[in-house]
Write a structure and sequence with these properties.
- This protein is of the alpha+beta class.
- Helix content is 29%, strand content 40%.
- The chain has 4 helices and 8 strands.
- An 8-stranded antiparallel beta sheet has the order 1-2-8-7-6-5-4-3.
- A hairpin with a 3-residue loop joins strand 5 and strand 6.
- It is globular.
- It starts with a strand and ends with a helix.
């Protein structure tokens, strides 16, 4: 079952949109935090952190290992074990807000505010959804093998989001 229980998108004016996800993980927040804020953790599900200064205002460069671009920017929010936000070229503002649920579960309230043509909106919804599934797998001890990664799951999710948006 997918950890994503809710995903939405909304226009923020011409050429800007906001994606929101609610991600439920059966892992304590102290397990989830390093997956979002360390080079080792990020590599297991999202991207290589070629540069990651773990503090407000710190530099960050993320290099997508599934044939995506390297993007640079800054850490624009940092509240230890609760909120981290990276604002990077091309991908815009990427914000993870962790909420503890009991002692062994975490909800991530995720935002991605970015620019770009509306045609990319469904691509990004599918991509983030797929990455959150990879996060759940990485937290379970199975980080992604980027050399074996394919776009099959992304394509399924893209088709699903496209069908949903037409309804």
């Amino acid at each position: 079952m997918s950890p994503v229980s809710h995903a939405t998108s909304e226009s923020r004016g011409e050429g800007r949109w906001l994606l929101r996800f609610e991600v439920h993980l059966p892992h304590a927040d102290d397990e989830v935090w390093p997956a979002l804020t360390t080079p080792e953790g990020l590599r297991g599900w999202l991207a290589a952190a070629d540069v990651l200064e773990r503090r407000l205002g710190g530099a960050v460069t993320l290099r997508w290992l599934n044939d995506g671009p390297a993007v640079s920017g800054h850490v624009t929010a940092w509240d230890v074990e609760r909120v981290v936000e990276y604002t990077v070229a091309e991908h815009g503002r990427i914000r993870f807000h962790l909420e503890r649920v009991g002692t062994d579960s975490t909800v991530i309230r995720f935002l991605n505010e970015r620019g770009g043509p509306d045609s990319e909106r469904l691509d990004c919804l599918a991509a983030w959804h797929a990455h959150f599934e990879l996060l759940e797998s990485a937290l379970a001890g199975h980080p992604v093998d980027w050399a074996a990664w394919t776009a099959t799951r992304w394509a399924e999710l893209r088709a699903s989001y496209a069908a949903f948006s037409k309804a």
